[in-house]
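Take a look at this chain, tokens included, and explain the fold to me:
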Amino acid sequence: MPEKDPMNPPLTQSSVADAAGRLPRAAERDSASTGRRFFGDPQRRSELIGQSMTWLCGGALAFNILLVLGILSLLAFHGLSYFWQKDLVELMLKDGTKVLGEIWEVEQTEAAADRPAQDRIRMKIGNRDIGGLDFAWIESANIASRRKPADAVLLERLEWGNFHGFMEELRDGDKVLAQGSDAVWKAFPALHETKAGQREAVEALEKGAIGDVNYDLEKLRLQRKELDFEPISAAEKQRRTEEIDRRIAEHEAD
């Protein structure tokens, strides 16, 4: 018979059952210990909350940046298109009238008892010095045809808004300089450069010598008005008024 080892007792049914019961209890103790370390440690909890808030703030910042970029893109798309010239369209109306301009908007009118809903066009017609208006509304039902003339011209002017038309004749006052589209285009750059130089010279005079004279005249006029509020005799007021009028006449003569 082999001798019993006190350090390694033989396995029995009761010892195996006891060992099996201790394993779940050990696992529960380990799980409880881990939970206490996770939720009970203030430093660990603070780190987890800090990391969560950092990710949350980062995500919110990224979302706000996307919103800003989207708004800027939308503004750029609609804003920059304002400075981009639109095609000139010539509309032939059913009454024989021709309208040349840029189509800015198309909207649908509300239906009424005597007519259905229909489209109408908001058109920039320019030539305010001729028609008095920059824009006109045209009913689509009144349009017979439309085309985009290749020789139509848009010129930006300093007064009376844009010019819409065709280069048929070029004049300097009453003097005809060129006739026909090709001849006008050849003569136009030189005349435009000359007129631009004259305009710059006039602006320099207005800001320089003429501007100084106008400033002195305005000061003299104010001095003449101030005489009405000063407690002086009629003779003194008359003398000062005549002196101011004389200086005004000298400035206007210059």
